[in-house]
Structure to design on (454 residues):
């Protein structure tokens, strides 16, 4: 299998690997409250797992690009990276402390960065300038995995997540009065992570087989035989195109992952749209489902539209959905519709941008690695901003709740004191009236007695 047949099989295995990648990446959002309870931490503290994952992703992306450029058998690297990703996912439920959780998630992010970079590099090496539909299919598989993840999480997350959300969201150092009722918290979220790790097992086996049957130079034949297009310049032109692409993708991926990672917590804890945890899981799945549907449609649209036209249409859709979500943020139907529109619009931006860059310059493994590294930086920036927003909301919500309770108690005390004062005043007045009547009766009796005496 040196030709088209092997390339199609490798592409299919890459799609399976990206499906597992989307499954693992999106599982953290719906299970965030359960992980907070598992580690005994607040949402702000458990939210740092996204930072830990992005840091590992950054390291894996930067070094992975150079590793894949020099490797003669990239399927071996993908096999090892996917195996470590599955192992780290399996051990997440065993982490009862924040430090252990951060370490495991960092290793998970490291290998995910290797898989992401290696998948793009291998696809570009096999298909060259004709990679458009295959690139869209690869990223559709990622979106499909991200769509399935919340549905899997819904089966195992605790139904009492809403009951412990106030305690989980409370900022450190705040004195929050505990609810009088005792809530029994039961979570089977470990099965969600174990199921995700089991999905990776057949993908690892498939890449191990491809690595064992790898023909020398087989995967790189398309790039080696590709005719060099005259308008592909080098030097400052190439660096400028890559820099603009990196900055664009840095902003894009931060929004994509940031929205998918925190929409569940936002929907559960927002003061206006307080969804049940299972409903919020469906909302997260709706976002990733629309994201996957957009990438599925992009596979066919890429045959009839240029990458620039597709990216422009997507950016217009992102702008419209963002305006709707901000202006009508207190409406639940708009939250559903806006999330779906935002997911569809975000879907094909990344593969279209990659394909567009490929039309102008040769994208090597080092370029893909640095690009994915900048994606990780955007993860860190956007997720830190979202986590700070959650922390601010938690403080504001808790402070407002405590202030309202204090005001209610003071009002009740004032009304009680006023009532007691009026009652005491009435009693005194009544007592004075009785004493006055008794005194007047005694005076009249004394006067009547004196009259009879005289």
């Amino acid at each position: 299998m040196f030709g088209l047949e092997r390339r199609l099989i490798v592409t299919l295995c890459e799609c399976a690997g990206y499906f597992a990648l989307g499954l693992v990446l999106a599982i953290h959002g719906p299970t965030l409250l359960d992980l907070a309870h598992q580690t005994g931490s607040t949402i702000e503290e458990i939210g740092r797992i996204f930072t830990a994952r992005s840091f590992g992703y950054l390291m894996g992306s930067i070094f992975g690009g150079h590793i894949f450029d020099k490797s003669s058998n990239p399927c071996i690297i993908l096999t090892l990276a996917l195996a470590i990703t599955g192992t780290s996912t399996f051990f997440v439920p065993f982490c009862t402390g924040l430090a252990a959780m951060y370490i495991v998630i960092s290793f998970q992010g490291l290998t995910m960065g290797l898989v992401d970079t290696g998948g793009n590099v291998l696809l570009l090496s096999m298909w060259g300038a004709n990679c458009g539909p295959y690139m869209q299919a690869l990223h559709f598989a990622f979106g499909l995995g991200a769509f399935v993840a919340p549905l899997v999480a819904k089966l195992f997350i605790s139904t009492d997540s809403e009951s412990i959300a106030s305690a989980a969201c409370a900022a450190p150092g705040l004195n929050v009065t505990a609810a009088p009722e005792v809530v029994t918290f039961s979570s089977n979220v470990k099965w969600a992570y174990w199921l995700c790790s089991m999905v990776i097992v057949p993908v690892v086996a498939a890449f191990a087989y491809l690595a064992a049957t790898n023909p020398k130079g087989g995967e790189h034949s398309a790039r080696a035989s590709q005719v060099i297009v005259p308008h592909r310049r080098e030097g400052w032109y190439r660096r400028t195109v890559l820099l603009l692409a990196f900055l664009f993708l840095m902003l894009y991926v931060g929004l994509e992952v940031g929205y998918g990672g925190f929409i569940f917590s936002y929907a559960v804890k927002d003061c206006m749209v307080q969804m049940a945890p299972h409903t919020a899981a469906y909302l997260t799945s709706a976002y990733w489902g629309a994201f996957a549907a957009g990438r599925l449609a992009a596979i066919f649209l890429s045959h009839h539209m240029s990458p620039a036209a597709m990216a422009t249409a997507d950016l217009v859709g992102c702008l419209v959905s963002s305006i709707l979500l901000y202006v009508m943020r207190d409406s639940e139907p708009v939250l559903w519709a806006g999330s779906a529109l935002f997911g569809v619009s975000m879907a094909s931006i990344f593969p279209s941008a990659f394909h567009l860059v490929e039309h102008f310059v040769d994208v090597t493994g080092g370029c893909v690695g640095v690009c994915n590294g900048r994606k990780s930086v955007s993860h860190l920036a956007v997720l830190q901003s979202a986590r700070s927003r959650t922390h601010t909301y938690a403080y504001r919500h808790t402070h407002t709740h405590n202030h309202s309770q204090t005001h209610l108690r003071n009002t009740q005390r004032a009304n009680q004191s006023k009532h007691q004062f009026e009652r005491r005043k009435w009693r005194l007045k009544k007592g004075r009236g009785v004493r006055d009547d008794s005194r007047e009766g005694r005076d009249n009796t004394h006067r009547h007695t004196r009259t009879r005496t005289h």
